[in-house]
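Example record

Each entry pairs one chain with its bound ligand, XIL.
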Amino acid sequence: MALFLVACAAYVGWDRDVGQADPPSGQDAPSLTLRGLMPGNVRIGAAADGALLDADPRYRATLAADFNAITAENAMKWANLEPTPGAYDWTASDRLISFAQENGQAVYGHTLVWHSSVPPWVSEEWSAERLRAALRQHVVTTVTRYRGQVWAWDVVNEVIAEDGSLRDSMWLRRLGPSYIADAFRWAHEADPDARLFINEYGVEGRTKKANGLFKLVRGLRADGVPVHGVGFQAHLRLDAVPEDPIGNMRRFAALGVSVAVTELDVRLALPAKPEMLLDQALLYQHMLRACLAVSTCESFTVWGFTDASSWISAHYPGYGAACLYDKDMRAKPARDLLLHELRTHADETPS
Ligand code: XIL
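Structure tokens for the complex follow.
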């Protein structure tokens, strides 16, 4: 813990001493980066795209140095890919793939079927047949485009309601529950080698929603649907710490699926105080420990790595400071504690 305390003290000091801490770069020794310390069987990812990828060299350097996987934060969502019917715009997603390839990173595709980010020209008034055909077309077109370049897809995203039942969405209303199995089968046909995930929030601990997801995945597996993994988004806050994430993830793993932490961030009520940053660090560590404790945890991904481009402030007014790096790209205690955790894990794991 000594390193952590030093790191925290340094962080608090940096507030008054802007510009002293360099973000990691491609030149850093692996022992100084998250990517360098992550066990070989677990990817460490960050959601990215957007303006900073083009505009900010420090952003690119940190993304490349600390992470060996990238999730498309928005670039692969349907509304962005196909703003007008039939006219796919792959510019942003191709850009992300090129960046990842240049930097030896895997790409996690996000997300094929969701109640949100549906193009405005797709209408619930359509016949079920037409709607299903449009959804299928989208899944097949997108997965085929990136066949062999995307290691895993969030095939369906956020399909469970708080009480554990299926979410009331256009897809459920018009197509019935079978749209979920269909989407997995379409994606599997389009790229048989891609790992196919079901992704959800509010399921990291032992919640009703997690129980509902568990039943759904168990049923899909029993029916032979190609579901390979369960993604735990983990958009967390300090006053709602997930209960027993290790036990929870293990029960999913026991169904024969991989698990992954897919969208971790820990939002703070602003203004963030130093002690809140320490609690935030502990929560990041809590989730990393959970992933490392489950043998089939395949990846650990943060939803944005810098407060300069996190989705939180736009979506949760009054909250922010959710990421591993601050808005000036200085490492926060959370990033230092993850490094510490990875070092400890390496020391404790027989090689
Ligand atoms: C968010 C993006 O981060 C924002 O930029 C966008 O405006 C809305 O979507 N769960 C998900 C992600 O699965 O796709 C969401 O991403 C965050 C919550």
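The chain has one domain: 2-344.
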